[in-house]
Specification:
38% of the residues lie in helices and 22% in strands. By secondary structure, it is α/β, with parallel strands linked by helices. It binds guanine and fe (iii) ion (FE).
Length: 432
């Protein structure tokens, strides 16, 4: 009889930030995280908590000790365009001119598979430097851009979702696709990548103005045939865009309702921005289980508007944070959380509020995981979840060292990191 050797657990000692299922932050000033590979070779959290209590349950285990550092769940970026790396920092008079002038030309270059592969490499390096371990990403309309994305994610063993952009109208040569072919390509890419390792496919109609009715119906049909796939799109980002969508679909109650009429609102459907919604829209988001990807650096950069965090919370709709690079100005979750705080404070277009630091953090980790339909899988470091984590250095800069040393509570420590932190804080990333 042969026995397969039990994969030995690994143990990491440091300060430890986790979240419970309700989104409450848990913090151990001296914590221990124990992980073990599952049958697929994915490291999962076996145990976590105060050092003394946890180590007693695992005697003899060699422990990696990081004094003064913080172990925290890897960040989750709910909406990012990997091909828009080189579009970051391109000024324009709002969304639609920005798309025409910078974004579509940059995306057209992804017809070249070698270019796509090179950018994908850089993109995943940049995510890692910033502590982002999972992202829901747009590729471009070229299938090769999707292969480049997933190929690199697979080499790195990451949990990543992405998909080929669908845009068969109101789009220039070089990015516009063909209705029939775009749906066949999407089906083939789902077969190739969805559920392979930790990869997941996202059906990706760019936004209603760029997709014909036939393409929208086709996308919805694919989404029905693959109920555990993701859907990603944009909605209600910019006033000109909202007017355009309403002119194209006068019969719809709202821009969001356009997606509903095509059957594109469901769990695992993620809509970027959701700024110019009303309470009926928010209820529709809640009732269908669709989620908002909130993109504050992008919304401030393009002057799109201010997401209403208070109304979103009251409605119970799922939402979480995202960079929206290249409309977004940073890959750093710290910058995104700070921008979300600014947007929350804004009190002219809606009531201003102060989002709690631990709530901002939750929206970029466990809350984002829940919004993506990945509750219990990533984002919390709860036992049984995948061990994607970051090691943070609260002494990374002189000012941050000074400020974090004065923190009298977890909220004060997290806020010091959010306000003063960036990629320099991320010392190491460990993925499952
Ligand atoms: N709406 C349609 N396409 C895009 C895009 O690439 N970026 C943003 N921010 N909004 C969009
Ligand atoms: Fe976007």
């Amino acid at each position: 009889m042969t026995t397969t050797p039990q994969p030995s657990p690994r143990a990491y000692r440091a300060q430890l930030l986790r979240f419970d299922a309700a989104g409450q932050a848990l913090f151990d000033s001296d914590g221990l995280l124990v992980t073990q590979a599952n049958a697929q070779g994915v490291q999962q959290v076996l145990d976590a908590g105060p050092y003394g209590a946890v180590v007693a349950r695992h005697p003899g285990l060699p422990v990696q000790h990081w004094p003064g550092r913080i172990i925290a769940p890897g960040f989750i970026d709910m909406h990012v365009h990997y091909p828009q790396l080189d579009v970051m920092g391109s000024p324009a008079d709002g969304l639609l001119p920005w798309l025409e002038r910078y974004t579509f030309p940059a995306e057209a270059a992804f017809a070249d598979a070698a270019h796509a592969a090179a950018v994908a490499l850089f993109f995943f390096d940049e995510l890692a430097r910033n502590g982002v371990t999972t992202a829901l990403a747009f590729a471009t309309s070229h299938p090769a851009s999707v292969d480049a994305f997933f190929g690199e994610a697979q080499r790195r063993g990451l949990r990543m979702m992405g998909g080929k952009v669908l845009q068969d109208r109101h789009s220039p040569d070089g990015v516009r696709d063909q209705t029939e072919q775009s749906l066949l390509d999407t089906e083939a890419l789902i077969q190739r990548w969805h559920g392979r390792g930790r990869l997941g496919y996202a059906i990706t109609p760019r936004f209603a103005p760029s997709c014909s009715d036939a393409q929208m119906w086709g996308a919805a049909e694919l989404a029905r045939r693959h109920p555990d796939s993701w859907i990603q799109s944009h909605v209600a980002e910019n006033q000109d865009e909202v007017r355009w969508a309403r002119a194209l679909y006068p019969e719809a109650r709202s821009y969001l309702d356009v997606y509903h009429r095509f059957g594109l609102l469901r769990e695992r459907a993620v809509y970027a921005h959701c700024i110019h919604l009303d309470d009926l829209d928010r209820r529709l988001m809640h009732d269908t289980g669709a989620a908002a990807a909130v993109c504050p650096t992008s919304n401030l950069f393009l002057g799109s508007g201010f997401f209403d965090h208070g109304a979103a919370a009251r409605s119970g709709m799922l939402h979480g944070l995202a960079s929206d690079v290249g409309g977004g100005t940073s890959f750093s979750p710290f910058h995104t959380m700070l921008a979300a705080y600014y947007v929350g404070r804004e009190g002219q277009s809606k009531p201003g509020l102060s989002l709690k630091p631990s709530a901002l953090w939750w929206h970029h980790t466990g809350g984002a995981a829940r919004a993506l339909g990945l509750e219990g899988v990533i984002g919390t470091l709860q036992p049984g979840s995948e061990a994607d984590f970051v090691l943070l250095n609260p002494q990374a800069t002189p000012l941050l060292a000074r400020k974090s040393a004065q923190a009298n509570s977890l909220e004060e420590l997290l806020f010091a990191l959010i306000v003063l932190g960036d990629d320099r804080v991320v010392q190491q990333v460990v993925t499952a």
